[in-house]
From TrEMBL:
One of its GO terms (cellular component) is mitochondrion. It holds the Pfam family MnmE_helical. This is tRNA modification GTPase TrmE. The keyword GTP-binding applies. It comes from Mycena sanguinolenta. Belongs to the TRAFAC class TrmE-Era-EngA-EngB-Septin-like GTPase superfamily. TrmE GTPase family. GO terms for molecular function: GTP binding; GTPase activity.
Amino acid sequence: MQRALAKAVQRSRHDQHCLAIAPFFVVRSAHTEPKRVRLLHPALSDAQRATIYALSTPPGKAGVAVVRVSGPNAIDVWSKLVKTRKRQLPEPWKMERCQVVHPETGEILDDGLAVFFKAPRSFTTEDVVELHIHSGRAIISSVLAALSRLPYCRPAEAGEFTRRAFHGGRLDLTQVEGLKDLVDAETEGQRRLALRAAGVGEIYACRRVDYESHKNIKGATRVQFEQLRTEIIGCLAKLEALIDFGEGEDIEEGVYEEARDRAFKLKSTIQSYLQDSRRGEILRSGVRLTIFGAPNAGKSSLLNFFAQREAAIVTPVPGTTRDILELSLDIGGIPVIVSDTAGLRKTVDPVELIGVERARKAIDAADIALCVVSCEDLDRGDGEDCPVEFPEAVRALIGDDTFILFNKSDLLTTKRDKSNLAGPHRWTTSLKTGDGTTEFLASFAKALQKKWELLQTSFTLSIDIPRNLRYALSDNGDSGSTPFITHARHRVHLKSAVQFIDGFLATSPDDIVLGAEELRYAARAVGKVSGLIDVEDVLDALFKDFCIGK
Ligand SMILES: Nc1nc2c(ncn2[C@@H]2O[C@H](COP(=O)(O)OP(=O)(O)OP(=O)(O)O)[C@@H](O)[C@H]2O)c(=O)[nH]1
Ligand SMILES: [K+]
Ligand SMILES: [Mg+2]
């Protein structure tokens, strides 16, 4: 056992050297499990470690403004600026009534509240002081000016509090992205997606996040990526054991085959993640909806209906819309970028010709194409069962996934009643009388939600999820249906992970060292998503899975 440990540790050092990405310390004590303290970049310089301060709420008149101070001297900031009745050191995490005073003159600047977050249980993992003062320009600038008098304090740069949270291991990259997306979110769908990635709330309240033991993780994206990486490392650990000890001695037989098997499953899991029609990325940036159709079908009327204002020009003249008109809207909580386009028809007018060309391009670029067809333009077949004949101009552009709105139902002749036009992703309205518009909007929003957010995923995890992680996932309620990949960056790394796993699967069992190298790169690729890479995991998995040198 001793020999095995020594060897494995030696190998870990080698791995650490090879990866040379993330320096890390392993803190061990007699009674506790080894804890990893991850440092993702070289240690912060003195300037970077300075105590920083900033106004964390928007400037201007309001009830409350929050000035945040973070860094090693935060406690000193408290003693110089915060005057409470007890006039002693703060009780951590407890809001206290106080006066904020000037550190040199003692002048009272404002009356408010203050709270001290003791490291590492703070957002930045450093000591943090928050001053909750009245929000007024003069008050805020006097407090910021007072802070600037302290020699160890400097104003924070953009995003610097979050950067420190990342350096401190409080957030990984997916959570940093999630946090930014959360602040930027404009629709319900975006908010939920971002919240899931950010995992804020619980995370602030808990100590340094430890994947193995922590049940409070809400950064579900982080958990999912971590799960993938753990699985790759599990395969790698098996290969490492074979390299170190060789089959037949202390290791059971068939280990190599098992690793291959697991790697194969893992590859198809990642591939199924990649085949998500870019739902997460699209939901984040907005679904591109292109409205198209023959002239005068009511396309611009539809855009105005969506926007609830006269955004586009509507006239009885066919060919009114020339250029593309784009609006960002919230439809059922989904961010949608709606484009109104020129009516499609053969034309010799050079301006209209360009408009038609642009319309075709917009249809190609759309995530959803919505064709507006005027009931007037439908081929007036006699029988009630006559199949719908679309106008010639749009016929070729209508595919299985095209949404269709039959408009101008007020002009429908009795021969072709509405039921003849019904079908999935087909609606009938009169934008003039308002008939059917409420039903259309509700059903259309539902279709969007189904397609972009609440759609059941077509894949399931083929790998075993440890119980604690399963908790974190199921606790979120929607892990099976919420998009997994939300940034193009995630996709790039997952694709390269698949390539490396393929590389491993293609190596022969005689080249086991090469194969292990491929897996190590695969783990590293997935680790890049979260920005957390360490090789100590290999050792953990090794000792968990094998009974070496019994
Ligand atoms: N009767 C009736 N008229 C409608 C309806 N919806 C729109 N219209 C009218 O149809 C005409 C054309 O509407 P638009 O919204 O400009 O049609 P469009 O498809 O944008 O037309 P182009 O931009 O020229 O291609 C306008 O006079 C509208 O008032 C409807 O449901 N019923
Ligand atoms: K028109
Ligand atoms: Mg128009």
